[in-house]
Amino acid sequence: MPKDSVIGTSTKRREDKRFITGRGQYTDDIVLKDQTYAAFARSDVAHGKIVSIDTSAAEAMPGVLAVFTGEDFAEVGGNPAGWLIHSRDGTPMTEPKRPVLAHGKVRHVGDAYAAVIAETAEQARDAAEAIDATIEELPAIVDLRQAASDTSNRVHDEVASNVCFDWGWIEDNRAAVDEAIKGAPHVTTLELRNNRLSPNPIEPRCSIGDFNPGTEDYTLYTTSQNPHLTRLLVCAFVMGIPENKLRVVAPDVGGGFGSKIYHYGEEALVLAAAKRIGRPVKWTCSRSEAFLTDAHGRDHVTKIELATDFDGNFIAVRTETFANLGAYLSNFATATPTFLHGTLMAGNYTVPNVYVNVKGVFTNTVPVDAYRGAGRPEATFSLERVIDKCARELGIDPIEIRRKNYIKPHQFPYTTPVALEYDTGDYDAVMDRLEAIADLSGFERRLNDSASRGKLRGLGISSYIEACGIAPSNLVGALGGRVGLYDAATVRVNATGTISVMVGAHSHGQSHETTFPQIVADRLGIDESKIEIVHGDTAKIPFGMGTYGSRSLAVCGSAVVRATEKIIAKAKLIAGHMMEAGDAEVDFEDGVFSVRGTNKNVPFGDVALKAYIPHDFPLDRIEPGLEETAFYDPANFTYPSGCYACEVEVDPGTGKVEVMSFAAADDFGNVINPMVVEGQVHGGIAQGIGQALMENAVYDENGQLLSASYMDYTMPRAYDVPMFKVDHSANTPCTHNPLGVKGCGEAGAIGSPPALVNAVIDALQRAGRSSVTHIDMPLTPSRVWDAIHNS
Amino acid sequence: MKISMTVNGKEVAREVEDRRLLVDYLRQDLGLTGTHVGCDTSQCGACVVHVDGEPVKACTMLAADAEGAQVKTIEGMAGKDGTLHAIQAAFQEHHGLQCGFCTPGMIMSAAALLKENPKPNEHEIREYLDGNICRCTGYHNIVKAIMAASGQPVAIAAE
Ligand code: FES
Ligand code: FES
């Protein structure tokens, strides 16, 4: 390692220059020669039988080049679910086909049943409106519990019930957990809803399909978090295109938060249309369309029970959850409420008995899938809310009850009753940091200050643990994953010593272009500015599973390290040859190769040049060139954890909640770039505040989405959030990846909702509203006012 | 119809449909794709540009209504020699952007704020950004960047 390590340095972002000057290149900024435009005809009813679709008027409209309906894709495959879930009785879930365009039935408002390609976007939209579809409306299936019990009205006629799976984790624990709860001195029960959210990256989705009839090569430019996965899904499952005939490019992408992980039908449509008309086809989603078609997040109805002794020692946790899957299975939809949720239900605690039951239910709503945190926010919210309620019932301080039950440092590695093995952590140390940065000792003073202004102040605490670096192929395979989840990187040292690093992760706000060079620079002892990251193009990068689940650094970053280590090994061979020494005698430090015990040395740059001018290479031993690829498949998940504190003021007159302060102490393991990590936490907390206070995707009983624009779906704005205090100094490096990193992208969105809701309940309890033990998110003024005045 | 205006100091004239929005005119007709579209209800602010020195959501204005106006977009913020505007530099320095999609609108709004109120406090900055949504940053570093660009200390009490 060089003496002044670049690891842990807040290097400024190199990607910024293009974005602050308007030179970013997002998908919709791309204009291909002879480009045409697609628009979709979408269902305005939630559930209906397609009787007929008359496209003749649309076809005759000016500029129209082609019209597609579900019939055109009847023979091609469906967009698959990535995880196969087995129900408690061992039966595998049934997976209804998710077609490119609806065929036979429409299943949610916004379900596309036809598409028009035209010379201009306006012409395409006008013609899409002229498509005359007769759709016989069926009763909409919206309410989760009702959907689960109703077998006569089904979202998918070919599936016997709307319950896709009834999953138990772990089924063998069930009896013991039931027994433990029955005999426990104290049981705290809470019923709650984890509100449905629309991810809302500010860049709407966009896709451009291109086809070259001369070579039969397809290109798809698309707003994706993982171009290789999109290629795999389009090729292997939906369209049957050979994988080497489709190039997927995800250029600058304006945020994803999960919603751009998945393959959507519009991507397949623009490719098919480009082939049919022989010209590029672009589709740009409007925000209104995005609300109706981007996969939503969360939407659980849960009952959780926590059994304890009278001292607050945890004995058992039992949950029953109805998870809304929406109308079709999106790619991660079945994994999110199960393995990304149930496996985390022990939290940071030694709780000997845990049983989780999740029923995944189809409804006539847009598909629900992973949204920032994906299953882990739902687990954390349920657990941290019930712990808070329990602490209150037992008269124990909320920090004390958590500390009492934390897994202690000497207990790692720690295997939970829900089958994860946490490798490392020190939750008390993180809580110590939180108490310091949140100035908890000053709370009484602030409480009085708020009271003097007629406001009710409350303090809320939460802890979280998450399983990140969604990867280990062996684990995900055992859990039902149909893909491997490793990642890949190629390090290419150019002859003049500059370096290109091709990575499988995709950066859409995560700052990889800045942070990945820090890793390579650290290992090679050369300047970061000589290292360039290439991502987002299947033609340029070796392979990759993309960016989600806080996996980029832990998994792809580790692949970068492995490839860099291979570079060093190869360079040692070359350096040894140059210095007439065996490679075992060659050391490498600070960018210089030297022969041990001599003063012979050569700098990295000379070795790089030599690799490409191999005039005197012993070719039986050393190949020319200096380029290495590594695939990295970790041994385990990583387990970031944290403790969050939120202070709120509630206005008793209006019920309005103001977030006065928010402090987050996290253990992300080693940190490569603190500035970037802090930014990730800020953004996550703001999304968590959004979920807790204002965001809510609401369907009425007819399956109409009521919150379908920024007028009705309340996004957090600058004045809704405070400045944040963040700390990541109490870190325990991950024990099984070469960087010792854990991942930081989702933490803020996981830890913050329970802290905020706990704070509001605390404020109300302090004001004597002892019967208010829970309010469902979002804590809008009317809900809070209602709790204050009708309790 | 034919319209002409000055965009980033350059005279431009084009034939457009009556219903052409200013944002589409800038992005599609002039190729100035730094101005973004994030919504269709005039809420997100990704499209903010300056028209005769005033911040305008380019998605809510017809191109024809900018006839004869001086229009400035994000591409016109840096100096001719590439020197960044103080707000652009501050966004980079203080990590005021992640995915960068809201950023052009944020910078254009921030520039309008500082013209109106050269030393805004934290509260005034947050209130002024009412019409700009960022999903990535949690606004923390945007507020810091604007403080810094206005020449004020950025060590905000909360940190
Ligand atoms: S595009 Fe959203 S306000 Fe203009
Ligand atoms: S930086 Fe992504 S929306 Fe603001």
Q: Which helices and strands appear, and what pairs or packs with what?
A:
The complex is a heterodimer of chains A (791) and B (159).
Chain A: H1 16-20, E1 36-42, E2 48-54, H2 56-59, E3 64-69, E4 105-106, E5 112-118, H3 121-129, E6 132-137, H4 144-149, E7 163-169, H5 174-182, E8 186-197, E9 206-212, E10 217-222, H6 227-239, E11 246-249, H7 265-277, E12 281-284, H8 287-293, E13 297-308, E14 314-326, E15 353-362, H9 376-394, H10 398-405, E16 414-415, E17 421-422, H11 427-437, H12 443-452, E18 456-465, H13 473-478, E19 487-493, E20 499-503, H14 512-524, E21 531-534, H15 552-578, E22 586-589, E23 592-595, E24 601-603, H16 604-612, E25 627-632, E26 641-650, E27 657-667, H17 674-693, E28 724-727, H18 747-766, H19 781-789
Parallel strand pairs in A: 1-12, 10-11, 14-15, 20-21, 27-28
Antiparallel strand pairs in A: 1-5, 2-4, 2-6, 3-5, 7-15, 8-13, 9-10, 9-12, 13-14, 16-17, 18-26, 19-20, 19-25, 22-23, 23-24, 26-27
Helix pairs in contact in A: 9-18, 14-15, 15-16, 17-18
Chain B: E1 2-7, E2 10-15, H1 22-29, E3 48-51, E4 54-57, E5 70-72, H2 86-93, H3 103-116, H4 122-128, H5 140-149
Helix pairs in contact in B: 2-5
One FE2/S2 (inorganic) cluster is lined by residues 37-39, 42-47, 57, 59 of chain B.
